[in-house]
Amino acid sequence: TNSTQSAETTDGFHLVIDALKHNDIDTIFGLVGIPITDLARLAQAEGMRFIGFRHEQHAGNAAAIAGYMTQKPGICLTVSAPGFLNGLTALANATTNCFPMILISGSSEREIVDLQQGDYEEMDQLNAAKPYAKASYRINKAEDIGIGVARAIRAAVSGRPGGVYLDLPAQLLAQVIDADHGRKSLVKVVDPVPRQLPAPDSVQRALTLLKSAKKPLILLGKGAAYAQADADIRALVEESGIPYLPMSMAKGLLPDTHEQSASAARSYVLAEADVVVLVGARLNWLLAHGKGKTWGGPKQFIQIDISPTEIDSNVAIAAPLIGDIGSCVSALLEGIRSGGHGKPDPAWTGSIAERKDKNLTKMAGMLNQNPSPMNFHSALRSIRDVLKTRPDINVVNEGANTLDFARSIIDMYEPRKRFDSGTWGIMGIGMGYAIGAAVTSGLPVVAIEGDSAFGFSGMELETICRYNLPVVTIVFNNNGVYRGTDVNPTGGPDVAPTVFVKNARYDKMIEAFGGIGYNVTTPEEMTKALTESIASGKPTLINAVIDETAGTESGRLTNLNPSTAGKK
Ligand code: ADP
Description:
Strand content: 15-25%
Radius of gyration: 25 Å
Bound molecules: adenosine-5'-diphosphate
Number of strands: 19
Strand order of the largest sheet: 3-2-4-5-7-6
Helix content: 25-40%
């Protein structure tokens, strides 16, 4: 023995927990089993929160949304092979959405896996993760756990955030080393999200272009919400007087009721604007790739992004501004304040206001109808009015029609409160995001779910009840995918591919776990059920009976849904 060694020992299990805690990570979302059960037990024993799920995909989604809300990587812990693969779906989704998370999976013995000798849950997880993660690492030696965890954290949150895979072979967890040596091997990540200032000439170029604009528009994406530069973004919008459009998860960065919001005149401003300032929004499919009919006449873009290769991804960008959003926006703001930028032409803002008025009046007409059974509009009207009284509530939203209608009808008032299908436009994020948001914020969550979307994560109702989370799940039940009216043209015994059990009572599912169920058929019942559920703070599910003929195939994505041309 030498003088730096003590009699005490530690092991891989303890070092993983110590390394996470050393970096202020206090929560793990996961699902236990070989070889990480003791890791979860130990995390809890050492004062971390361990939230155990029923399926790893939802644990991963919870971790991802926690990362988005906090700028700290959300942690998902899974077993090997199938558990890892289930978690990998969430890791890929996080990377696609630029959410920071770390998927930590136990794995089987390297020497057996590498020789493909047939181990328990044998799988080359590190290589499987690589194409779907921002970075992937394996730690083989207990004394490398400190540096390995530090590397994973920095990779997840620096630059463009994303998902990181961390592979922990079973033998690593049981490795014993000297405790003092272990303590000294821990690494605290210094400045994990460093500011990245834009180059002054890029700022100048952007300001010059902006000054020349006749019909400027600011487009806020979820990168802008993630950046937590809320005050500067609001100041940029308000001091410049430029109309803005929020992407769905950027809703609430400024309240949706803001007079400069052009949401209700979306197609008009996209087609008409001449200079568009993209703030943390990619010109992907959600923005029609920045071209075509949606974008109308000639356009010049100023694009703020942390990732230089995002520039010119779909169309030419006249003024790229590379850096963190906070620094870029405050640089623009400073330039606007000192550079004699006038407010936009009243002809431009006036014609937007006119379009908005017209569209809002039309929408109000639709919202005020009271068909029986309820349709999407009448049910959402009730939800909108209840949520207006609680701007602090988190909203999760997925489905086809349920997503499309709720996105435009439900107003958001605070940043980072809306979590939805995101960059992939997927279903299955519902209960995972709801749990992640409830655990992270300690505030209520209302999950507005299509019946089909809910099905992907419905078993997590048990998780919600087990942890007694203030989550209200509203299932828009129209008996099927898109609608409930399809019939099997052969007259055979199977129902049509899009149809579910008719008149299902999803509210009874949550009662099985001690939660509260409501079955609502009118807007008044919805108002009452939602008000009571939020006030109770208890796990609740509201089965909202919606006309099965309401809704359109693929919602607003009809153009992405190829249909057969063959007719007999
Ligand atoms: P939306 O779907 O709302 O349009 P996207 O996910 O397409 O938003 O775009 C988010 C963009 O924001 C990504 O290109 C990402 O690189 C960028 N981004 C994320 N965080 C930051 C940040 N802190 N600073 C600058 N850009 C960021």
